[in-house]
Structures are given as structure tokens and as C-alpha cells.
Amino acid sequence: MLNGATLIELTEHYGAHNYHPLPVVISRAKGIWVWDTDGKRYLDMLSAYSAVNQGHCHPRLVKALRQQAGMVTLTSRAFHNDQLGPFLQELCELAGMQMALPMNTGAEAVETAIKTARKWGYTHKNVPAEQAEIIVCEGNFHGRTTTIVGFSSEAQYRDGFGPFTPGFKTIHYGDIKDFERTITDNTVAFLVEPIQGEAGVRVPPKGYLKQVRKLCRQHNILLMVDEIQTGFGRTGKMFCYQHEGIKPDVLIVGKALGGGLMPISAVLASRKILGVFRPGDHGSTFGGNPLACAVAREALRVTVEEELPWRSDRLGNLLIKDLRTIKNPLIKEVRGKGLFIGVELFPEAGGARRYCEALMTEGLLCKETHDDVIRFAPPLIIEQNELDWAMERIEQVLRHPLRR
Ligand SMILES: *Cc1c(COP(=O)(O)O)cnc(C)c1O
């Protein structure tokens, strides 16, 4: 096998440079652990941005994948397959929704939700043609298509990729007054993350989603919650919106739905809302493929049967408490819910990346988000003693300001 340095060179030489990964080459993984090409072991504290909540190569998921791969993997939606129907039923029952539309990536599901809201606005709310408005939040992350980056507030995500799709208005995240004054007769939807992950694990004020829910109902606006990163137990509930006791009109899921084995995403809503689609309105060659559906069905069962939301809640509270005991004047804030935690450093710390590199040396894989936040989001199958092991190393690295 090629050594790590050579593999990195190949990637950098032949691959477009749209990422800046930590210099580690992973060639094997199991549960919460990954190994590099030299056989060094690391605890995965990122979980592929929460796509591997169930842990790497979960034996039940690998078995489901193998079994389905020997039966049928792709039919396209030109024909029915025997996995899609049961998958949709099980997902809808888990989320308490009536209907779902399967796609592959998160961004595709968000695009699907946007199309749903617009069509719904024209057919059910009498919004004049081409006038539908969707409200989004500053700091949002919903994916990387041209339409989606068009309403990002992150300059780098947009720079050089215009012209963009019109019809989006941006408000301050967590500011209910700003939301209320931005609503017009043409507002069809509010698209929001219950916790902003990529913005640095930003948690909105308590009660925010409840107030949003109320205003959406009053003004006949679809509340579309993007749970692609926060869903399936990550924040200590099956879905993060459950912390506020509300229910969205449109739920967007992805990432951990495929258990880290297959890309699969979905939009869920009522029959009335998703009923806006007629044959030919929307589609995807791989959307709803039997291989991904079979894996997702098992991923959902594992999430429920291994009580991942409950584990996340219990262990996350302990980890946050421990992290808050670290005395370092460069730490600005420790925040999050469940095992979805951000440690924000003051700018004087010189950026979170250096700390992630130091943690890597100690055997922990973390990734900075934005310049100053270290995100801790291990697979939800992690055990208390493993978390203690991680905490010892985190403390060693974060206890003292790193020397430049
Ligand atoms: C990751 C993510 C997306 C995009 O998902 P992809 O599968 O990368 O397209 C959208 N929304 C949120 C909140 C995410 O975290």
C-alpha cells in the first residue's frame, strides 16, 4: 500500500482543492475508532459531520448493505422496488409525518424543500406567480448548490459563483422580532436549522422555535426545519426541534439517515404539502434506490434500538460539564446540546485549527468550524470510559494556551 504522504500528494495533485483536510489518511474504521495508514488509532470526534452517528461500519448496517447488494441495488423510479415503500413508512412513522420524498444528499433535500414551498405557495396560498419568498437565517448552512449558496451569508461560499436565484430574505438567527418584520403576504416558508452546526454550533435562545412555530401558523407560512446534521439523536432527542415541543411543517433529513454507508436524504411533510408534486415535477435517478433504502431502514432501527438519542443526551451533558471545568482564558464559550458541542476560542488563541492539529497528535480527530470553534461530535455509540479517555486528552491540549 502507498504510504500516507504519497496518498496525500496524489489527492492534492489530481483532486480539486476545495477542502483543507487535516494531514491524516484513514484506511480503516470501526465504531468510534479510525486508523491511519501507519496503523495509528484515533477517536473520531467529528463523525463525518454527524453522518456516522451509529459508528463506523456498524455490523448490522454492513450486513444489511451486503444482503441488499446481492439482491438489487438500483431500479430508478421508472419502476417500483421492494425497499422504498417500507423505508418511507418507517421513516414517516418515526418522525410522525404523513409523506416523504427521498433524495441522496442533504443539498438535494433542501432544494426539494424549496421547490415544495414555492409550489405550495402558488397552489395553496395564492402567491402571485414568481413572487414566492423564503426567509432564511444569517449564518445558515444548507448545502452547496448554486441556489443554496446564493442565500448563504458566508462570503467565501458565494464568491465567484453568481448570478444567484432570487426569492430569499435573510434575518438574524434567534431574533424573533427580525423574523416577524420580514414576513410579507408572499412569504411561503421559513428555512431554519434548530442549531446552526457549520456556523459553530450556535444554539438559539430558549423558546425561539416555539415563537417561530406560532408566527408561521398565524401567517400561513411553512416552517421548514433542516435536521440534516442535528437529526437522529445528535442533540439528545431524535430530532432537535423536540427540545421545544414543536412540530415543523417540513422536515429535512440526511447524513446519519444512511448510517455512514450510503448517501440518502429525504423531505417529510403532510399529505397536503408534499401532495403538490405530480409525476414529472421532480426526481432523481438514485433517489429511493433499494440499496440506500435497505441500509437506511437498518440505520433507523439501530438508532432506536441502541437508544442513541438518550445516550447522546446523557453523555453530552457530562461532556459539556467537563469541558466547562477547563480553565483557559482563551476559551470564550462551551455550548451545545447532547453530543453536539462547540468550544469557541477568543481570536487571540490564533485559531481552532492549531488545537485540532494538537488533538490529532494526541489521537483525537476534530475539525475546526469557522476559525475559532472546535466541534466535538463523536459517534453516539461512544461509552462513558471512552469519553473519559477523550476528555483527558482534550484537557491536556486545552488547559494551556498553545505556544505559537
Ligand atoms: C451537511 C448539511 C447539509 C448539506 O448536506 P450534503 O449532504 O453535504 O449536501 C445541509 N444542511 C445542514 C444543516 C448540514 O449540516
TrEMBL record:
Pathway: Amino-acid biosynthesis; L-proline biosynthesis; L-glutamate 5-semialdehyde from L-ornithine: step 1/1. One of its GO terms (molecular function) is identical protein binding. Coiled coil: none annotated. Its EC number is 2.6.1.13. The keyword Transferase applies. Keywords: Aminotransferase, Pyridoxal phosphate, Transferase. Its cofactor is pyridoxal 5'-phosphate. Pfam families: Aminotran_3. InterPro entries: Aminotrans_3, Aminotrans_3_PPA_site, Class-III_PLP-dep_AT, Orn_aminotrans, PyrdxlP-dep_Trfase, PyrdxlP-dep_Trfase_major, PyrdxlP-dep_Trfase_small. One of its GO terms (biological process) is L-proline biosynthetic process. It is an enzyme of class 2 (transferase). NCBIfam families: Orn_aminotrans (TIGR01885). Belongs to the class-III pyridoxal-phosphate-dependent aminotransferase family. This is ornithine aminotransferase.
